[in-house]
Amino acid sequence: MEKLLQTLQKNLKPQCAKILLTALQNSNDESFFAFVLENLESIIVWLNSKEFEHMYLNVQSPPLAIHLY
Fold first, then answer.
1. Measured between alpha carbons, how far is 33 from 52 in angstroms, rounded to an integer?
2. Cα–Cα distance between 12 and 19 in angstroms, integer?
3. By Cβ atoms counted within 10 A, which residue in 25, 26, 46, 61 is the most buried?
């Protein structure tokens, strides 16, 4: 868990890190946790994208992985 937090701190703006951590905290689904860990690099790229910033940053429940599907 410590490594995950360090990765998020190093690679995401605080607001984007909070979005991802909140989603993880609110989920009780082990497959969601596995999905995030398996796709963390792609999720970070998405959260750092201009598209995410312009379209979803201020949305209450933004999509975490729109480009993975």
1. 21
2. 10
3. 46
9-67 confidence digits (pLDDT tens): 999 999 999 999 999 999 989 999 999 999 999 999 999 999 999 999 888 888 876 55
Would you tell me how many other CB atoms lie within 10 Å of the CB of residue 23?
15
| pTM score, whole prediction | 0.84
What is d(CA 4, CA 36) in angstroms, rounded to the nearest whole number? 10
Please provide residue 16's backbone torsions phi and psi, each rounded to the nearest 5 degrees: -70, -40
Q: 57 to each of 17, 20, 30, 31, how far by Cα in Å?
A: 11, 12, 25, 24
Rounded Cα–Cα distance for residues 51 and 5 (Å):
24
Tell me the chain's radius of gyration from C-alpha atoms.
11
